[in-house]
Design a protein that fits this description.
6 strands, single chain, 112 residues, elongated
Amino acid sequence: MDIDVYQQYFGADAVFSDVRRRGAAVMLTSSSGGGEIRYTLTVSFFPYEDPTDFRITYDAAFSEVLYEARGRRSGKREQGMLLTLRERADRIAEKHQAKIFWDHPLIDARFG
């Protein structure tokens, strides 16, 4: 079972597949099953050509597993991950010559 622990969209600057991307979706997802838990950070850059343009593109989506072990969801663990989420997302963005504008949220944060 997958649960979006956190999701929020921000302004961004990047170019992928010759298309300027002005938005970034940042998500922390927990996946569990068979007594295992995994937390994955995903950053996806999308065009965001107008305030209603939230289409997600898969040619500019990057993921990193933050935690994987036997066990189940932990609110305390999730809070710890959220504290370092921006730093980790910035590393993903920099690796792909992109920038996330944290001071420019496009939607309010969603928690699950």
